[in-house]
Specification:
It is found in: Membrane. By secondary structure, the protein is mainly alpha-helical. Helix content is about 75%, strand content about 0%. It has one domain.
Length: about 250
């Protein structure tokens, strides 16, 4: 039975729309979960070696703070839901990383309590997961107060949140690069993690361009890619050097 031209065209359009929708959903799912995959290998490395010296806790600080800021930015900007879910998932992943680092440090003799929160010299190097939770909850509380107090008509605040979130995120590789530079070693740092940063940032850049995301996202992606390249160079430079050898 032959179909009339209008009906045939409609069915073809429906099929193309469905395929496009499935592809778009697959890309969104990849955007949510792929950036966190590298931390699985880093987690395994830490648990196997029972040391977290190769992983900078400042990476988790950057990721928790920038993703909290991005969640509040979404309340003002309403960008893609996939990016919001990515932020929520990444926050959860970083607390898993903090938990294993705290647990390993405790076994290695580092211990303390809530009073560490008031010691600036120990900022984000606390020995209990509770301290990380308390500080993060305080940041959320302060941002929630601003969200309630500042009217939505004040666009400069919303744009400021976006730039703050993405400028913080763009500095993500810097703590790891700086740590590697100081000890002149990448020992204990997961190659899969750095590869996921590099490939993930390329993927994000393409995603932002194709989806017409706010310009803040593009600026962030380009800065991150630059540091990713620098860390890859460090892996090549320090490939035959261990942190112990440099002591």
């Amino acid at each position: 039975v032959s179909l009339s031209p209008p009906l045939s065209s409609f069915l073809q359009f429906s099929k193309m729309s469905e395929e496009k929708s499935l592809a778009s959903t697959a890309v969104d799912i990849a955007m949510i979960f792929l950036p966190a995959l590298g931390y699985v290998d880093q987690y395994i490395t830490i648990t196997k070696t029972r040391q977290n010296k190769g992983f900078s806790l400042s990476v988790s600080l950057v990721l928790v703070m920038c993703n909290v800021l991005r969640c509040f930015f979404w309340l003002r900007s309403r960008f893609e839901m996939a990016l919001l879910y990515q932020s929520m998932f990444m926050i959860a992943v970083q607390f898993v990383m903090l938990e294993v680092c705290v647990r390993i440090n405790r076994k290695n003799g580092t211990s303390g309590g809530v009073t560490e929160l008031f010691d600036l010299s120990k900022f984000w190097a606390w020995s209990t997961l509770l301290n990380f939770v308390i500080f993060s909850a305080f940041v959320v509380f302060v941002l929630a107060l601003f969200e309630y107090a500042i009217p939505y008509s004040l666009e400069v605040y919303g744009n400021g949140l976006g730039y703050a979130a993405l400028l913080v995120e763009s500095s993500l590789p810097f703590p790891q690069w700086n740590r590697n530079r100081k000890v002149k070693s990448t020992e204990g740092l997961s190659k899969a993690l750095i590869a996921s940063w590099f490939l993930g940032d390329i993927f994000k850049t393409v995603y932002f361009v194709s989806n017409g995301s706010p310009s803040q996202f593009l600026v962030c992606a380009f800065i991150q890619l630059s540091f990713d390249v620098l860390i890859l160079v460090q892996f090549l430079t320090y490939s035959n050097t261990s942190a112990t050898d440099k002591k």
